[in-house]
Each structure stands twice: as structure tokens, then as C-alpha cells.
Amino acid sequence: MSLRLTPYPAYKDSGLPWFGKVPAHWDVRRQRNVADMLVSNVDKHTVEGELPVRLCNYVDVYKNDRITERVAFMRASASPADVERFRLTPGDVVITKDSESWNDIGVPALVEYSAPDLVCGYHLAILRPRRNVIHGPYLFRAILSQGVASQYHVSANGVTRYGLSQDAMKSVIVPLPPLDEQCAIARYLNHADRRMNRLVRAKRRLIELLNEQKQAIIHRAVTRGLDPNVRLKPSGTDWLGDVPEHWSVTQLYRVTDPRRPVMYGIVLPGPSVDEGVYIVKGGNCESGRLRPEYLSRTTFDIEARYARSRLRANDIVYAIRGSIGAAELVPPELVGANVTQDAARIAPGEGICPRWLLYCVRSRAFFLKLDSGAVGATIRGINIRDLKRADLAVPPIGEQERIVAHIDAETLSITDAIDRARREVDLLREYRTRLIADVVTGKLDVRGVALSPLDDDGATDEIDAPDGGDAEEMLEAEEDGDGEAEA
Question: What is the pLDDT of residues 207-220, one digit of tens each?
């Protein structure tokens, strides 16, 4: 299905550079004039004598576009007055008002579920749309658009933690079309979201299947080698099973440089600076993400206290918090960078091929062994001691190099397919962001667009996942110069 959108017939200057021109019959208003705001002070504690409640907290909002009964709310307590004041109602928009990162300020979630004991938690603010002024689902979409989101970001104050004042939140400006158009915009974007989510789910499933195939190749090679007739012996550890008889079984720290032990780095790197030392966080250990343009920097003074964890070429960085198990080799351009407490440095020792060791620690079975001991609720992490003492089966150096060449050759086409699928997902996300911005600011007119029954009855009409070009075509449709876009 293809829906061709066109601009509105007439525009006027909004008077705001981040919105530019808006449809002639639209208005722009500050949030104080379209919604009532409540800043919650209900924390995660349970106090005797207070009412038991379910708490919608920061993570619930940050990780979910919508607050529904499927969210696993935390149990806490609150006073009767706070329960009454901060109880959530359908149509509310909840936003993050405090965070460790400025670009995590103002993240919205639309409330679609209410209950007598469901209240908004600390570090959040409720925006309650005023009746007959603004539609809650439209306000949610408006806050997602770059022109509104950037106002939250630039208003955030702080150094190691950022926050918004009530006046700053009330002063944020949103575009305001007539109420019926707000409803049409929200409905159209919901419809587009469902289509794109189905495409993203299909691509993610493809990536999972390809990764499983890749992991099977890696696991076989790093635990059994390349000779199918080799004599085996018990390794003594469950994830390795039987290994070639001439291999040694030892712990990770014994195959690393003894002068540069397995360790994490900077505990409090502070806010990123323009001139300083690159730092590697857990999320940077993903393949393709260990590049200067993706990294934050800390000051030379802070980094100097952690000189022992500095990186050299062909060191391995391994995520020990958050995305546990992601690992990558340090490229030459990041020599002298450092790791944070979310990542460990693994320095291959003498007689160890760095890429062979990388494949070992990337092994799915190696990850599962460590993950079984991970701790933490919202952000999981593994103990650095467990990483150091993880078992490996080590072949002679010549065999390590042959194993690397085999894995590289066998997984090349799989890796290319994974990269293409990830690019598709990135393009769909980019398209979604641009579509929201264009529709919410009136660059594209959705009035009168006839949608499929997908949004009317929850049906999921079959739409094939793109196989290489559809996401690019979605983006190109907006850039064809005639002001039209396809969705």
C-alpha cells in the first residue's frame, strides 16, 4: 500500500527557526497554554502507613512509547494525596525530566492505561492535555519531533546529571493544528508506525537467524578446530565440552599480557568535552561502533588517573555492563584511548593471535557462561573477576591463525547480510523520525488520507519485509524535489 502525501496549500512563518513555516491556519503555543503539568515526587520506597501503589518509573517511560497494562510496574507506596495528584489517566503524556545525559531529557510516553493504584514516579513529569485544546496522542508525537525535542535538550541544566525546571518545560513551544487535524495526524502516524515496526521486526528476526548461523561456525572452530578427525579430551568446563587433545585449557587472564591485566577503566568520566581523551563505553564495543565519531571524550586530568587501562592497537574491548558480550579490536586511531567502567580491556599476551581471542570472547557460549552470573535489574553487569577466570581452549599460534582465516572466509557473506539488514533498520528509524517531524510541523498534509483497516480493528495485513531497497526508496521519495513523500 502506498499513500502519497502533499504539502498544505498555504503557509505562514511560525516565527521560530526550528519550525520554519507552518500551515496558514495552524497556531504555535507554549506547553503552559495547552497542557497542565505535574512534577512527581513519589519515590521508589515503601513506607509503612502509606497506600500501596504501582509506580510508573523512569525506565518504564524511557523504554516504552506507550504505558499499557503490559508494563511490569514497580511496587511502592505513596500518601493518599500523592496517589490522587499523580495518578495516571489515559491521554496523559509522561516525560523524563532528569537524566545522566542531556539527550535523554524530554523522552515521552503516551499513557493508555489507568488504575486506581497506578501513579507517576520520581524524575518524571505528567503533561495532561487540556480538553478541546490538544489531543494527547498528538502531543506525544509532537514531543517526539526534532523541533520540540531539541527545546528540551537545550533547556536541560547540569554537569554530571541534567534536569529541567518547571518553567523550562512549560515554555516549550509546540505546533498546534485544529483538534480534528491533531487526531488525523496521530492516527496516520500510528498507522505508519505499525507498518514500519513490522518491517523492523522482520529484519531483526533475520539478523537473529544470521547471527545464530555465524555463532555456530565460530563455536565449532574455537572449540574443536578445523580437523574433523582430531582426537578429543574433556575440557572440564561445560561451555567448551570436549576439545582437541593437543590444546591447553586455561583461564582468560593467563593468555593476556601480564603487565596489562584484564580491567575496566574510568568510573566517573564526567560530561563529554570537545578536546580530550576518547573513552570507550559498553555500547561502543559493538561491531562498527568503535570509531572516533561515536565516542565521547573525557578531560586529560580525569583520564590521567586511569593510565593503567589505556588502550593499544589490537587490544580487545569487551562490554561488561549493558550490552554484555559485545567485543571489538581496538583500531590504530584509538591508541591512547581509555575504557570506562562499562567496558573491560583485554590485552592479548605473547603467542596469542588477537583476532582468534576476539572470536573466542565473542562466542555465544562464552557470553552465556558469563551472563548467567550477571547482576543488576535495569542495567545488568558481569564481575570483572568472572571475566578474567573464564575458561578457554587454546591451540598453538599457527592453528589459531588458520582458525581465524577459516572463520573469516566462512562468515564473510553472513556478515555482509547482517550489515545490510542493520542498515535497513537504521533507514527505517531515520524515515520514522523524518516522517514525524514533517507531519507534526505541517510539511506534509494527512487530512483525508484513507488508511487501511490496520488501525481500525488491529488487523495485521501482510506486508513483506524489504530485501534491500524499500527503506531507501521511502527516504528518496521525500527527496525527489516535488514535495511529495510515500509512506
Answer: 999 999 999 999 99
CATH of domain 258-389: 3.90.220.20
How far is CA 35 from its chain centroid? 29
Kindly report, residue by residue over 190-202, the tens digit of the pLDDT.
999 999 999 999 9
Same topology, domains 28-174 and 258-389? Answer is yes
In angstroms, the Cα distances linking 101 to 96, 117, 159 are: 11, 30, 9
The span from the CA of 23 to the CA of 8, in Å, is 6
Q: How many CA atoms lie within 13 A of 313 on its CB side?
A: 3
Measured CA angle at 260 (ends 372, 263), to 5 deg = 30
pLDDT in tens, 434-486: 999 999 999 999 988 867 664 443 433 333 333 333 444 443 333 333 333 33
- Determine phi and psi for 220, rounding to 5 degrees: -60, -45
Cβ proximity of 226 and 217 under 8 Å: no
Q: What are phi and psi of 57, to 5 degrees?
A: -105, -175
Dist CA 109 CA 125 (whole Å): 11
pTM to 2 decimal places: 0.73
Q: Residue with C-alpha cell 533475520?
A: 206
CA dist list (Å): 287 to 31, 172, 294: 41, 38, 12
CA angle 352, 211, 233 (to 5 degrees): 45
Topology (CATH) of 28-174: Adenine-n6-DNA-methyltransferase TaqI; Chain A, domain 2 (3.90.220)
b/e sequence 140-177, b meaning 16+ C-beta within 10 Å: bbbbbbebbbebbbebbeeeeebbbeeebbbebbbbbb
Does the pLDDT value for residue 185 go beyond 70?
A: yes
DSSP 6: B
Helix (H) or strand (E) holding 296: strand 296-298
C-alpha cell at position 217: 561456525
Helix, strand, or coil (residue 204): helix
Domain positions in the chain:
1-26+177-208+402-487, 28-174, 258-389
Q: How many angstroms separate the CA atoms of 369 and 252, rounded?
A: 13
